[in-house]
Amino acid sequence: MTAGPFTWEYYDACLAAVRASGYRAIGFSEVGDGSRLPVEPFVLLRHDIDYDPEFAGILASREAKQAVRATYFFQGDSRFYELFSPGVVAIVRGILDEGHWLGLHFDANGIDDDATILRQVDSVAEGLEARFQRPIDAVSFHMPTYRPIGHLRLGRGRVNAYGPVFFRTIEYVSDSNQDFRGKDLLAMLQSGAPRRLQILIHPFWWRQEYSPLVTKMEALAARLGLSLGQLLTAEQRAVIGRS
Question: 183 CB contacts (<8 Å, ≥6 apart)?
Answer without folding.
Answer: 173
